[in-house]
Amino acid sequence: MPEIPAEPYPFAFSLADTALVIIDMQRDFVEPGGFGETLGNDVEQLRGVIPPLATVLQTAREAGLFVIHTREGHLPDLSDCPPAKLQRGNPSLRIGDPGPNGRILIRGEKGHDIIDELTPVPGEPVIDKPGKGAFYATDFGAILAAHGISKLVVTGVTTEVCVHTTVREANDRGFECLVLSDCVGSYFADFQRVGLDMIRAQGGIFGWVAPSTAFLSALQNLTPSPVL
After folding, report:
1. Active site residue 151
2. pTM
């Protein structure tokens, strides 16, 4: 079983028991005019994860690694959106309001969908979640169990919110999580740094952290050579 140089110690994995999880790489979070920007954030802070994550996704597909995507959003009638979330802060647009890509964070709207650079392909499940974590009110756990997955390579946005929540949920359920440090992003540099530190602290209290280059190197060694 190959090992990836990681903190706090190497992460062992195999193609059979590992999934690449891509969290919430949606237009509403990483493109102008979406929910992230309406909260006053600079979406360019998140867009830096797109090139390394696109490379990881392509290599994972070539290696035959199971890939699963998530999207955060709500039903059109907002029946699954709690008041505390709906009324949060003082954004220029709230969840459900019309935006440049349709209603903000509403399932089926263009803004709710995953960006073109990371579009899922047939066979890659897309989990629609109403909360921050991927396990809450979804079939995420059931899908992982059906595929014999016990280890997650976690990517996406944002580091301190949906990534952290999913990693914590997974940790409590016995999954081992490797977070790729350059493939997760935050609107805030301090949150990015501290969020990663919290995952690997105390001997890996929630999981492991490594750059994508370390993961790519391990994956490429597992990828079958092309037949000439």
Report:
1. no
2. 0.96
